[in-house]
Amino acid sequence: MSDSLPLENEHRPVAIVVIGMAGAGKSTFVSALYTYLATVAKKRVYCINIDPAVDNVNFPCNIDIRDTVNYREVMKEYGLGPNGAILTSLNLFATRFDGVLNLLERRMLELDYVLIDTPGQIEVFNWSASGTIILDTLALVVPATLVYLVDSVRCQRPTTLMSSLLYASSLTLKSKLPCLNVFTKTDLASSKPLEDMIQDYAAFCDAAEQEDTYAASMAKSCCLALSPFYTTIPRTAVAINGETRTLTGFERCTELIQDLKKEYFSDYLPWIKKKREDVEKKKVQDAKEQLSKFDAECDDDSDAE
């Protein structure tokens, strides 16, 4: 894998890592986005599946974690439950992720987008080492972006919406990567009430007042404290009509992803370059300190003789 960082004036595909809770519609979204990009926008798309427990992948899959790691065998071998086996499978796959990056580097000029479908176990990216390794190393090779899916059906309640926004916020804070929130299933439930609650604290409180629970009270406190942060994450909505095969909102979604690519170059790359420089400076400083210590020990030995 090359050690050079992406340059804004060179061609590199945009990597879109699709993350969301189980049932939010990640695989359906990836399939629809692939269809839009490949057939409508006429773009060259590469798809990667890193969900080891999925039964069927409904999009053309160029790299599949299931070809490398057998989720059920991991469950048996390590005596794990479903969630533990998924996390362990991702940890095993992360140790070989450099192979994925090498394949991407060889096909860099042939691609416009790289779509990555992920498991519903969002903790993979919130605290697991494998999620950090995958996102960090990916972002060193291509402009990497996050798309976090918000289930419009499940998130009509303010407490559930706030839980989802907290996940999106934590992902952005942890990875430092540009993120887009996408409301899914808007053909079944409108995203407008969710937009209203996100943009207007009073609207959120009015909705939360209908739930006389500790969770609702906590959600209001979280909204007050965190709204200046999560309101800055761009948002859009998509709908997929399975009967008519109509895709709505994907043109706007693609436009916002291109904005995230610009943000990657303007915000993320300077941060990672500074981080690299700090690491190199520390290495030099540590080497100097070790050399000074060695010289001092030599001088002490000479004096003793």
TrEMBL record:
<keyword id="KW-0963">Cytoplasm</keyword>
<comment type="similarity">
    <text>Belongs to the GPN-loop GTPase family.</text>
</comment>
<dbReference type="InterPro" id="IPR027417">
    <property type="entry name" value="P-loop_NTPase"/>
</dbReference>
<keyword id="KW-0472">Membrane</keyword>
<dbReference type="InterPro" id="IPR004130">
    <property type="entry name" value="Gpn"/>
</dbReference>
<dbReference type="GO" id="GO:0005634">
    <property type="term" value="C:nucleus"/>
</dbReference>
<keyword id="KW-0342">GTP-binding</keyword>
<feature type="transmembrane region" description="Helical">
    <location>
        <begin position="14"/>
        <end position="37"/>
    </location>
</feature>
<comment type="subunit">
    <text>Binds to RNA polymerase II.</text>
</comment>
<keyword id="KW-0378">Hydrolase</keyword>
<dbReference type="GO" id="GO:0003924">
    <property type="term" value="F:GTPase activity"/>
</dbReference>
<dbReference type="GO" id="GO:0005525">
    <property type="term" value="F:GTP binding"/>
</dbReference>
<dbReference type="GO" id="GO:0005737">
    <property type="term" value="C:cytoplasm"/>
</dbReference>
<comment type="function">
    <text>Small GTPase required for proper nuclear import of RNA polymerase II (RNAPII). May act at an RNAP assembly step prior to nuclear import.</text>
</comment>
<keyword id="KW-0812">Transmembrane</keyword>
<keyword id="KW-0547">Nucleotide-binding</keyword>
<keyword id="KW-1133">Transmembrane helix</keyword>
<dbReference type="InterPro" id="IPR030230">
    <property type="entry name" value="Gpn1/Npa3/XAB1"/>
</dbReference>
<protein>
    <recommendedName>
        <fullName>GPN-loop GTPase</fullName>
        <ecNumber>3.6.5.-</ecNumber>
    </recommendedName>
</protein>
<dbReference type="Pfam" id="PF03029">
    <property type="entry name" value="ATP_bind_1"/>
</dbReference>
